[in-house]
Write a structure and sequence with these properties.
It holds the Pfam family CxxCxxCC. InterPro entries: Puta_zinc/iron-chelating_dom. It comes from Uliginosibacterium silvisoli. This is YkgJ family cysteine cluster protein. This protein has about 110 residues and is α+β, with helices and mostly antiparallel strands. The chain has one domain. It is about 15% helix and about 15% strand. It is built from 2 helices and 5 strands, in the order βββββαα. It has helices at about 80, 95-100; strands at about 20, 35-40, 45, 60-65, 65-70. It has a 3-stranded antiparallel sheet with strand order 1-3-2, with no helix packed on it. Strands 4-5 form a two-stranded antiparallel ribbon. The longest helix has 9 residues, at about 95-100. The chain is globular. The structure holds iron/sulfur cluster (2 copies). The site of one iron/sulfur cluster has 10 residues, from loops.
């Protein structure tokens, strides 16, 4: 079964994606490309593009609602790893459907 995320991408163009700077590849053991992140506070960063009035993470490739992929999938920060599609594996994540609605995409069933 293919993931609904492969033809969506709405959450990557809706929410601010903030994470601890220890995840940056410039830090020991980190992996998120620093070149794609902006400093937020002394201890946190955010994925570039996710704090705009019309957010879109700079790492998102493709067209929302058609075909997308994360350009740094193996190196994405924790919030992206923890954000699950609504209704997949029984997970209830209304934020997923809120993001989809924002981009005119149909609700995923429970
Ligand atoms: S909004 Fe939901 S379905 Fe769309 S990419 Fe994000 S988790 Fe996947
Ligand atoms: S890093 Fe990847 S999964 Fe995370 S918001 Fe950006 S495009 Fe989406």
């Amino acid at each position: 079964m293919s993931s609904p995320c492969q033809s969506c991408g709405a959450c990557c163009a809706t929410f601010r994606v903030s994470f601890h700077r220890s995840q940056l590849d410039s830090e020991p053991g980190g992996y998120v490309p620093e070149a794609l992140a902006d400093e937020e506070t002394s201890s946190t960063c955010r994925m570039r593009g996710t704090d705009r009035s019309a957010p879109r993470c700079v790492a998102l490739v493709g067209k929302i609602g058609e075909a997308v992929k994360c350009g740094i999938y193996e190196y994405r920060p924790d919030p992206c790893r923890e954000f699950a599609a609504h209704g997949i594996y029984g997970i209830q994540n209304e934020a997923c459907n809120q993001a989809r609605a924002r981009h005119g995409l149909p609700r995923l069933a429970d």
